[in-house]
Write a structure and sequence with these properties.
With 117 residues, this protein is mainly alpha-helical. It has helices spanning 8-26, 30-51, 73-104, 109-112.
Length: 117
């Protein structure tokens, strides 16, 4: 069975990564930068899961059944690890933004670069 030229999960990956990169590059608000990084992370996670997908694939569990077409478990494990790390990094970035806001009174990235000491 041949797949078409347009594979929907990979188009969604490209859209999510493009939106995330656009927000990161062209926005100055620190909260929106965190949102852009989170959208980019969602695109990477979807890419990892899409890599391990196999059409009509079986569950990769040891059984007596002989499944020659099993789904790859490694990308799913990497995605779970990426989600946990992403949540921790997002919490850290948001806490840093709170400290910057308390110190300066704004969340503009260009004004925050001038902070010293």
């Amino acid at each position: 069975m041949t797949q078409g030229i347009f594979n929907i999960p990979f188009l969604a990956v490209a859209a999510l990564i493009g939106i995330g990169l656009y927000i990161i590059v062209f926005d100055r608000n620190l909260i929106k930068l965190v949102i852009g990084i989170t959208v980019l992370q969602a695109g990477v996670n979807l890419f990892l899961v899409s890599l391990g997908y196999r059409q009509h694939g079986g569950v990769p569990i040891y059984t007596n059944a002989c499944h020659s077409n099993m789904v790859l478990p490694v990308p799913q494990a990497l995605t779970l690890t990426s989600i946990v790390i992403g949540v921790a990094i997002t919490a850290f970035m948001l806490s840093m933004i709170m400290i910057i806001y308390r110190h300066t009174g704004h969340i503009d990235a260009k004004k925050s670069r001038k902070l010293k000491g």
